[in-house]
Design brief:
Elements lengths: L1 H25 L2 E9 L6 H17 L3 E5 L7 H4 L8 E3 L2 E3 L1 E2 L5 E4 L11 H4 L3 H9 L7 E7 L6 H9 L5 E6 L6 H14 L3 E12 L6 E2 L6 H8 L4 E7 L1 H9 L3 H4 L4 H24 L15
Helix pairs in contact: 1-5, 2-11
The protein binds adenosine-5'-diphosphate and magnesium ion.
């Protein structure tokens, strides 16, 4: 009996130590933003990767990180041409893989050699394993870390998000055909359960850009994201059109907004990044009245 109590105490101590280590590891990251979606396949990873690149192009080169926390469908490495890379471990801990524009990437994909291997990530102990893993990562100094959470608003994305300390907020990615009060409300509930502010909604696959003439055609009814954001009093961050090149570049591992900087989708990503920066700046100012410059002081992070 007492042995059991000792075991539990030991376990609790271990978790506390891991949490402390995780906090310390992430303390040099000025802003941490989670990207969520109501379901898979809406472009959550595409948006995460392109926002990361847009941030890097917008004055934060070498200061952007991506945590691909989608345990069962990690796709960030492929989109950044990093498939097959492995995380390097040294005495200080595990180092992220470096991608375009110095983006630091950590993904389950770097750990999983094949479909059969990742038993630890599938079993009941996966959150313990994930906490341990995350507490070993040496991010260094970053201006922003974007976290690609598992799809949906169920237990898994919630458990993963709960592991991460001091998040600044969440971005909700949706598509016109799934835009419904129910999906967005679920995301709002999700953010509330985590105690995180909602930075805003991005409507992806909103209209289609003709590859021949560049004209944008609204295939699905677009604009629903904006309406729902207004109805729920959540900021609307912008719409990303369907662009064949987004898909092609993702498959080839080429950063889309570098390769097609003048496309409407790239411009939309850049505009969205400015809105996110604005949110983070306002948050800084609220949490510390004397903090005028965005992403400059670690102490400004809540
Ligand atoms: N705006 C877009 N235009 C064209 N293809 C897109 C767009 N957004 C996403 N895709 C494609 O849709 C597929 C699913 O996107 P992905 O980011 O993997 O979704 P999720 O992470 O939500 O499951 C990918 O093949 C991706 O290249
Ligand atoms: Mg994904």
């Amino acid at each position: 009996m007492s042995e059991k109590v000792e075991e539990i105490d030991e376990r609790r101590k271990q978790i506390q130590e891991q949490e402390q280590r995780l906090r310390a590891r992430m303390s040099k990251i000025r802003h941490k933003v989670a990207v969520i979606s109501g379901k898979g396949g809406v472009g959550k990873s595409t948006v995460t990767v392109n926002l990361a690149i847009a941030f890097a192009m917008h004055g934060h080169a070498n200061k952007v990180g991506i945590l691909d926390a989608d345990i069962h469908g990690p796709s960030v490495p492929k989109m950044l041409g990093l498939t097959g890379q492995r995380l390097q471990a040294g005495p200080p801990g595990i180092f992220p893989v470096l991608g375009s524009l110095g983006i630091k990437v950590v993904s389950m994909d770097f750990l999983l050699p094949d479909e059969n291997a990742p038993v630890i990530w599938r079993g009941p102990l996966k959150m313990t394993a994930l906490r341990q893993f995350l507490s070993d990562i040496v991010w260094g100094e970053l201006d922003i870390l974007l976290i690609d959470l598992p799809p949906g608003t169920g237990d898994e994305p919630l458990s993963v998000a709960q592991l991460l300390p001091e998040m600044d907020g969440v971005i909700i990615v949706t598509i016109p055909s799934e835009v419904s009060q129910i999906v967005v409300k679920k995301a709002v509930t999700f953010a509330r359960r985590l105690g995180m502010p909602i930075i805003g909604i991005i409507e992806n696959m909103s209209g289609f850009v003709c590859p021949n003439c560049g004209t944008k055609v609204d295939i699905f009814q677009s604009g629903g994201g904006k309406k729902i954001a207004d109805d729920l009093a959540i900021p609307f961050l912008g719409s990303i059109p369907i662009d064949q090149k987004i898909c092609e570049d993702a498959d080839k591992g080429i950063p889309f907004i570098v390769a097609h900087a003048d496309s409407p989708a790239s411009k939309a990503f850049m505009e969205i990044v400015q809105k996110i920066e604005q949110f983070l700046e306002n948050k800084n100012q609220k949490s510390q009245h004397s903090q005028p410059i965005l992403l400059k002081k670690k102490e400004a992070v809540k």
